Amino acid sequence: xxxxxxxxxxxxxxxxxxxxxxxxxxxxxxxxxxxxxxxxxxxxxxxxxxxxxxxxxxxxxxxxxxxxxxxxxxxxxxxxxxxxxxxxxxxxxxxxxxxxxxxxxxxxxxxxxxxxxxxxxxxxxxxxxxxxxxxxxxxxxxxxxxxxxxxxxxxxxxxxxxxxxxxxxxxxxxxxxxxxxxxxxxxxxxxxxxxxxxxxxxxxxxxxxxxxxxxxxxxxxxxxxxxxxxxxxxxxxxxxxxxxxxxxxxxxxxxxxxxxxxxxxxxxxxxxxxxxxxxxxxxxxxxxxxxxxxxxxxxxxxxxxxxxxxxxxxxxxxxxxxxxxxx
Length: 327
Fold this sequence. Notes:
Elements: H1 6-14, H2 17-52, H3 59-103, H4 112-129, H5 148-184, H6 189-212, H7 217-241, H8 246-258, H9 262-275, H10 280-292, H11 296-309, H12 311-318, H13 323-326
Helix pairs in contact: 1-4, 2-3, 2-5, 3-5, 4-5, 5-6, 6-7, 7-8, 8-9, 9-10, 10-11, 10-12, 11-12
């Protein structure tokens, strides 16, 4: 079996990121220009109606102007429905073309598991490269650089949805490849850990979207929770295979925290501290959870323990005393 030189592969695959970003920007800009063109056309027609709105002007021209406005509005909504369906297909096609191009750099005769891992990593790297790109879709000449902050805000407003969608597509592709990897190596701890991390990345993406979006929160919350539950299952599998790995218990605790499952989160921090008793950050977190659940006696025991070992952490912890009552 041929082995993969991942450093060489990723250096070649990363060279595809810039042209892919340019193609993505062209797609996003095309739809923005479509909306802008119709907005300008409607504005012009409204001005035309205002010009003909006078008893001195023949009503025939007024009627033509109004009819033209209604025709433009009808045409816009028809084309908008078409473009609304077409754009996701174009973004999906661009993603698939990028991943197919990455596969061309893989040597022949490699194991299927290596192929899935390489493509999954490429998808993650592409998703990461999309971060904050919506602010820089438009580059101004040097003499107009003072307008850059305004253009960045406008670009963020008009293109952020497309960037989020594209990033989501690549993260979903990464998860798909990781699942295929597990099918090749069902008992591989590395495969399950990589899959869990892929789920965590996507859940973080949904979490950011929830903070930034005021609409469709119910849909985002459902997606966020579903992906977190999938990540939790992968960490449970890792815990079955490696029950003495502190990292696994830490990740389980974080997953339970995101799912607001406090009792289970406490159990994971207790397990973590049995393996790493000198993890004072985890100890402080466990104490705050005790206070949150009204178990003040147990919380104060941890406070006394931290007071001699980490006074700063102890001062931080005692601020959570009574939080369960106040909430």
